[in-house]
User: Fold this.
Amino acid sequence: MMEGYVKITLRPGSRQRAGVVGVYLVTTLMSACAAPAPAPPAAAVLPGIDVLLRQGPGRLAGARVGLITNHTGISGSLGAAGDTVNTIDLLHRHPGINLVALFSPEHSITGRELAGVQIESGRDTRTGLPIHSLYGATQKPTPEMLSGVDVLVFDIQDIGTRYYTYVWTMALALEAAAENGKKFVVLDRPNPIGGVHVHGNVLDPQFRTFVGLHPVPIRHGLTPGEMARLVNGEFLGRRADLTVIPVANWRRDMWFDQTGLPWIGPSPNMPTLESATHYPGTCLYEGTNLSVGRGTPHAYQHIGAPWLDHVALVQRLARYQLPGVRIDTVTFTPQNPGDSKYPGAAVRGIRFTATDRNVYDPVRASLAALIEIRALHADSLSFRVAHFDRLAGTDRVRLDVLRGATLDVITAPWPAQLAAFRARRQPYLLYAENR
Assistant:
């Protein structure tokens, strides 16, 4: 049985937030990068659920609705009690909307399960609605799951990185909707790390997995709604009947801490926006024998191992003059539940701190570190080959690192790939960069 999706309570006129979660408490963590952020816009940024309810139920009116969501599906507007309400309650209580089923992604509908843990189907005790797992026996809605549904609705906060499975849950559900004659609606949300920059390589389709179903870069710069439009227009054999309800007043150059929306960690080891900022690069280390700090408050902000000469590594990385980031030595102690690497051990590592996030390329910085770790510790560094390659979306990165290639040689094909992707995504963008 699954229960306890998030309700965030805000005191009017206060920035304190408390998360009330059915039977458990979640503390909402706000983050700030080292560089000063521009002031929020005068107009409030509102996620798609708020826009939908202000406009009226539209395509949901009179339809049987299935909702793909988790604890991040919440209103950005304060209710009468000074709180934000989750999308499940908003749709379930709406007199013009017939919510009949819920669908859970990775980490469960509560967001509490660790990465890779299979989610069981069940029933939501607050609404009585069935919860169909899309991260268990199947990752794609089956015809049986959709038999009593007319419209599938997606409302989950993504973090803008190819490895994160939420948009691929959406992509498979979009495909299932097309195959079964169902309508599909995305209640859009901001890309928390902005919509301007694209980084890394474009996935080689030979390495297509659930951490990268379609050829997009590691950092793709798309909102969930824009990704749905791209997938529907470019990658599906049969197009779905897709509607995207855009975010109000969001621009591509905005980061999440400029929206005024409350940050809710979208998974157990994504506690802050600072972690999300580095994740496009440091997540690659999950495919190595270095820890990414899962199980600590600074997951993905640092990487390390007990055998790492972190002083020498910082000295070697200084030669790269990587823009927008400071790299320092750090010692941390991973705890399980985490990445099961060196639990309880003192880990020597390096910590990435964004000093100018608008010029910082986390993929390039993390790859530079990997190259230098290999140079320092060729006998200690090892790869979880299949996992690293599926994260990288190719085997070339790993093979090039092992043969001692330079950063410029490894990344030489990337600018052309990114330029082609920018051109491909252009028709599907919904938001302007500037006011």
Summary: Residues 1-41 have pLDDT under 50 and may be disordered. Residues 6-264 form a domain with the Rossmann fold fold (CATH 3.40.50.12170).
